[in-house]
Amino acid sequence: VASDEAKAAKNAYQSAKEQAEFVGKRNEVLARKCEEIMMRNKQLEEDKDHLIKEVSRRIDTVSEMAKAVTELKRRAEVAEKER
Predict the structure, then answer these.
(1) Which residues neighbour 7 within 8 Å (Cβ) at sequence distance 6 or greater?
(2) Is this model's pTM higher than 0.70 or not?
(3) What mean pLDDT is reported for the chain?
(4) Which UniProt keywords apply (predicted)?
(5) HSE (CB half, 13 Å, CA atoms) of 7?
(6) Euclidean distance between CA atoms 33 and 29, whole angstroms
(7) Concatenated DSSP letters of the chain
(8) What is the pLDDT, as a whole number, of residue 71?
């Protein structure tokens, strides 16, 4: 009976050990994937910030061009009236 209990305890220990090793390996894989996702997220944030700045610059450029076109139209109207 004691021998059967010892075998059962040994089997339970071995099973728990295997489960712990599996969980440990799984956690390592998940940690690597998490790190990859965090790095990708950081890169995407940097890309987003760069694109926001680029869009802002282009909006400013378009605004300046619109002002220039308005001024050219005004000058053309003044010149037309002076004829």
Answers:
(1) none
(2) no
(3) 97
(4) Coiled coil
(5) 4
(6) 6
(7) -HHHHHHHHHHHHHHHHHHHHHHHHHHHHHHHHHHHHHHHHHHHHHHHHHHHHHHHHHHHHHHHHHHHHHHHHHHHHHHHHH-
(8) 98
